[in-house]
Design a protein that fits this description.
- This protein has one domain (2-281): Na+/H+ antiporter like fold (Up-down Bundle), CATH 1.20.1530.
- By secondary structure, the protein is mostly helical.
- It has helices at 2-20, 34-59, 63-74, 79-87, 92-122, 131-155, 157-185, 187-218, 223-234, 238-247, 261-284.
- The chain has eleven helices and no strands.
- The termini are far apart.
Length: 286
């Protein structure tokens, strides 16, 4: 029940909370910050999956865990990246724009890349991935709730101003509930793989934060833009990763499958790694 109904609804609610903070101009900011947007998009959509693939190949994870790490790397940043960018004195409008547009792109890219990853890592044991069905499901539980959130903001801005804080807190609570559920459903897989999975995911997080900064310096970006690009590259939507990991295994299980474990573990590790980074960037930028 939690997989088939509860998880999609929770993700939809979290995406709705993201939509409450979006405005139509957020999608046009690519023209306001073209160089910074390009740097952030390439880091998130290209470099992150390549880095993750090299990592899981080097560590030799069990197939489902390898697929789970790859799923995580395909997911865009979420509300968390926007919040951390704001706290770090980064370019929050740029962060919101990157999150909004890469979330739309992910509806197309994630199903295709997940199918390729499943075939590569699981071979003959790979479940059939319905690319069109997965894409449609992602559209329904991500794009539609975001659009509804934006519509509510336009129709009732006063109401949104009153409830946005409560909605954000509820979304955060639901987010942690999903993490706990994913780990509890796969405790044996989690505990047996944690010695290798934990450091690998920490390296993924640290590596992408560093690559984001290096790429920003190479592109000559301002400090605030560089902070934003780094956070967007290093902080992913763990809830979406858990949802996608579940969707590709619905036919085989009623509980959250092992492919959801990396996203759940990463959702904890990213705070341990990224918060010190945020504090450092905040102090550096005054």
């Amino acid at each position: 029940m939690i997989v088939k109904i509860g998880l999609p609804l929770i993700l939809a609610f979290i995406m709705f909370s993201l939509g409450l903070g979006l405005r139509k101009q957020d999608f046009a900011r690519v023209f306001q910050y073209p160089k910074a947007f390009f740097t952030g998009a390439v880091g998130q959509l290209v470099i992150l999956p390549v880095f993750a693939f090299c990592l899981v190949t080097a560590v030799s994870f069990p197939p489902e865990i390898a697929v789970g790490v790859m799923i995580l790397s395909f997911c865009p940043g979420g509300v968390t990246s926007n919040v951390l960018t704001r706290i770090s004195n980064g370019n929050t409008p740029l962060s919101i724009s990157l999150t909004a547009i890469t979330s739309l792109v992910a509806i197309v890219t994630v199903p295709i890349l997940v199918s390729l990853s499943v075939d590569h890592f699981m071979g003959t044991d790979a479940p059939d991935v319905d690319i069109l069905g997965l894409g449609l499901t992602m559209f329904l539980i991500t794009a539609v709730p975001v659009a509804l959130g934006m519509l509510v903001t336009v129709i009732a801005p006063g109401l949104v101003a009153k409830i946005s804080g409560m909605v954000s807190r509820a979304a955060m609570i639901l987010f942690f509930m999903i993490i706990v559920a994913a780990l509890a459903s796969n405790w044996a897989v989690f505990s047996s793989n944690l010695p290798s999975l934990g450091p690998a995911l920490a390296l993924l997080n640290i590596g992408m934060l560093g690559i984001g900064l290096a790429g920003s310096r190479l592109m000559g970006l301002k400090a605030a833009d560089a902070t934003t690009v780094s956070i967007e590259a290093g902080v992913q939507n763990g809830t979406l990763g858990i949802a996608v990991g579940s969707l590709i295994a619905l036919g085989a299980t009623e509980s959250l499958p092992p492919a959801t474990v990396p996203s759940a573990v990463y959702s904890i590790i990213m705070y341990l790694v990224t918060v010190p980074f945020v504090v450092w960037r905040r102090r550096m930028q005054g």
